[in-house]
Design goal:
single chain; 385 residues; alpha+beta; 2 domains; 9 helices; 5 strands; 59% helix; 15% strand
């Protein structure tokens, strides 16, 4: 009988879980839609590349939406059972609260494993694939976007003009560049030929000029210098070409896999601020998945508490708990970064606090005792029946 009941409870949780997961992931994705549409419409990026970017961004969204969806689905599922007095019937038949927990524990464990796999493997792979794809898009934009006898200003600080581009497009003839990257000494570069050379390791595209000259003047236009060269490299800033300067061309700690973080944290003579950031990111690989277990524990007593409101109550309660969790998490991380707490303690503080509260609430609910002390209930600050 217990297996049937656990499957029944699991089904009550699963349906809202997948619905909420889809809705929340879509809402987060909408925040990137405008930027992605700009890449496709104004920058000429193919739809296939946009679809790949969405796919690579998905693990970062799931890392947030899976724990959130789990908690809200538990509150909504158990809330429906409690509202229809099905929990009361199950208790009357001799089943304790702990006998109703295996389905919740199974769902929490599955969410924990999926979130952990996502954080350990999928997010680093997605970040690396995104970085490479953005570089390929930028490189393609640099080679395809340059048209002969047209002034091209897609590169930050540069205006590029090519008199002729052969049909095979391997190089440019009659290259003219206005270089304003050094405001005090703007330069004009003229070259017979130019070749685009990409370096996947450094994520840079270089324009190699042949047989030309560099003409510069100072800010007051009182001096003039000319430098002739047989070969000269100009590094192209592709950030504007691919839609902004916040694209993940280089990795930071939030884009590293767990082995990369551990290796980086072991680097000698590392600055304290950088080391603290790395330690926080290492522990976040574990604390965020572990939040699924915490939400499973705290969701049971909150879900089966008696209330008359519908599913909206579970949704609102879930959002409040999640907001409290992330406020404590952000506060703990900030204290860890400033040195007020160790990074380990600051990162695990939200799980520890809500875990203790969740175990207390679960124990009191199992004993069918009020969750809050009598003095507080009589005052009317917080009342659970």
């Amino acid at each position: 009988m217990s297996k049937v009941i656990n499957r029944y409870i699991l089904r009550e949780i699963s349906i809202p879980f997948f619905m909420i997961l889809f809705i929340l992931t879509f809402v987060l994705l909408m925040g990137k839609i405008l930027q992605l549409m700009d890449l496709m419409i104004n920058k000429g990026v193919d739809f296939a590349d946009i679809a790949k970017l969405v796919l690579y961004l998905m693990p970062s969204f799931l890392m947030i939406t899976i724990p959130v969806s789990l908690l809200i689905s538990i509150l909504m599922g158990l809330g429906r059972l409690s509202r229809d007095n099905e929990i009361t019937v199950l208790k009357s038949s001799g089943l304790s609260l702990y006998q109703l927990m295996p389905s919740i524990a199974f769902a929490s464990l599955c969410a924990f494993l999926i979130t952990a796999i996502t954080g350990f493997f999928l997010i680093p792979y997605g970040n690396l694939a995104t970085r490479n794809l953005l570089f390929d898009i930028a490189k393609q934009k640099a080679s395809i976007g340059i048209k002969e006898r047209i002034f091209n200003d897609d590169f930050a600080g540069l205006v590029l003009y090519a008199e002729e581009i052969p049909p095979h497009g391997d190089y440019m003839k009659g290259v003219f560049i206005c270089d304003n990257r050094m405001l005090k000494e703007p330069a004009t570069i003229i070259a017979e030929k130019g070749y685009l050379i990409s370096n996947p390791e450094s994520m840079r595209v270089t324009l190699r000029l042949k047989n030309g000259s560099i003409h510069t003047t100072n800010e007051e236009l009182t001096t003039y210098k000319k430098i002739d060269f047989s070969s000269y490299d100009v590094n192209l800033d592709l950030s504007e070409s691919i839609g902004g300067k916040n694209n993940p061309i280089t990795k930071d700690s939030r884009e590293m896999s767990l082995p990369e973080l551990i290796r980086k944290s072991g680097t000698p003579d590392l600055k304290k601020a950088v080391l603290k950031d790395l330690i926080i990111e290492i522990h976040k690989k574990f604390t965020i998945p572990f939040a699924c277990i915490i939400f499973g524990i705290i969701g049971i007593p909150l879900g089966i508490s008696k209330h008359r409101s519908g599913k909206s109550r579970g949704f609102v309660t879930g959002l409040i708990v999640i907001m409290i969790y992330y406020i404590i998490q952000l506060g703990g991380e900030a204290l860890g970064e400033t040195g007020a707490l160790s990074p380990e303690v600051g990162t695990w503080m939200s799980n520890a606090i809500l875990g203790v509260i969740g175990v207390y609430m679960l124990t009191m609910t199992a004993k069918e005792k009020p969750l809050m002390p009598a003095c507080i209930r009589h005052i009317g600050i917080w009342k659970f029946k």
